[in-house]
Amino acid sequence: MNIAFFLTILVALLLVLLFAALWALSKITEDYTYIFWRRILISLHILAIAVFFAGYTALSGEAFTGMLIRFATVMVVAELMFTLFVFVGFVVKKIQSIGESTPFNRSRRNLLKGALSYPAAAAVATVYGATKGIDDTVVREYQIPVKNLPENLKGFRMAQLSDIHLGMFFSLERLKELLKQTADGKPDALLLTGDIFDDKKLNAEAVKIIDTFADAFPKGIFYCFGNHEHFRGAEAIAEMLKNSKIKLLNNTSAVVAGGKRPLCFLGVDYPASREDKKFNEEMRSYTKDALKGVPKDAVKVLLAHHPEYIDVARENNIELTLAGHTHGSQFGILGKPLFPVFKYTRGFYNQNDSFGYVHSGNGSWFPYRIGCPPEIAYFTLRLG
């Protein structure tokens, strides 16, 4: 991550939100109090911007930078929530005034009746999303029906973790806690679908930590690269894994359970192309490589960081695809992503006996979640 660029974007965002928040403030305060709070708001922004740049130039250690970004997150989300709540209230009042004999009068400050509720609601939503929203991991259980599932695979249980983003917002200690909680669910195998090793200073120690849990997953730990592993040096990470019990599946496969109809895990790399046609060609090429040597009648589980592999898996009659990358949008409502910018953003997608699941992620690129908690997902095979 280019911290200077990131902080510059944050500052620009803060300025935009400042003007939005000033507008919102003008709707819920009287003129004399508005002037007072406007000065407070502007002073906070000036202080925040000064601290960001002073911190970057003089105290640019990762922990300090992480603290700044957390502070920026709270400030940005609080103002965003505050402005959104006031805007909704303003629109509702406007609608209510339609048809009334007395026209809507701004000077009457109709919003003042519930003025304190707006900043209070914004504060509650902000504190929750920046604390419990990113820290409280939920456990989800899924049954995967598979036609003609052999007896030895009935009840086979897998756990998926994804997008841990080790670093400023996810410590080694937290990684240990997550692995312990996952192991407590007694899965046969642990599947890691990319963006796990995201800090060059911590990656080697993280490999060792994951390795110590190998006995808790009797059928193994399997892993595929995400885009952030390429940012941190995928070759170096692959080298670290050679002396571990973590099985890297990079356009390759592994037989997990034998028998007349074996269970095979496949793993694919993250496509590097930004052009749609080439991106799709890379996905198909990587999947083709991963399928080499896999029996046609095998029960196949695909590990893929990017969720659009779900389509490619369906084309190849792969029973289950586990993906990540999207973080479930990190903002949700009633279990649905609030910003579904990807074709597949969160949860289950299935068609023609081919299931795809997009994990909500365990870490964050933006330290805030609401309505989209980090998760441990378990998948149990059953006869379909």
Give a description of the structure:
By secondary structure, the protein is an alpha/beta fold. It has 2 domains: about 5-130, no CATH class; about 140-384, 4-Layer Sandwich (Purple Acid Phosphatase, chain A, domain 2), CATH 3.60.21. It is built from 11 helices and 14 strands. The chain has a 6-stranded mixed β-sheet with strand order 1-14-2-3-4-5. Strand 7, helix 10 and strand 8 (about 300-305) form a beta-alpha-beta unit. Helix 6 (about 170-185) packs parallel to helix 7 (about 205-210). The longest helix has about 35 residues, at about 60-95. It is elongated, with a radius of gyration of 24 Å. It starts with a helix and ends with a strand. Residues about 105-110 have low confidence and may be disordered.
Keywords:
384 residues, alpha/beta, Purple Acid Phosphatase, chain A, domain 2, 2 domains, six-stranded mixed sheet, 11 helices, 43% helix
Instruction: Please tell me the CATH architecture of the largest domain by its name.
Output: 4-Layer Sandwich
Largest sheet: 6 strands, mixed
| CATH fold description of the largest domain | Purple Acid Phosphatase, chain A, domain 2
Q: Tally of extended strands?
A: 14
Name the CATH superfamily classification of the largest domain: Metallo-dependent phosphatases
Q: Per DSSP, what share of the residues sits in E-state strands of 2 or more residues?
A: 15-25%
**Could you report the average pLDDT, rounded to the nearest whole number?**
87
Distance between the termini: 45 Å
What is the ordering of alpha helices and beta strands?
A: HHHHHEEHEHEHHEEEHEHEEEEEE
Proportion of residues in helical segments: 40-55%
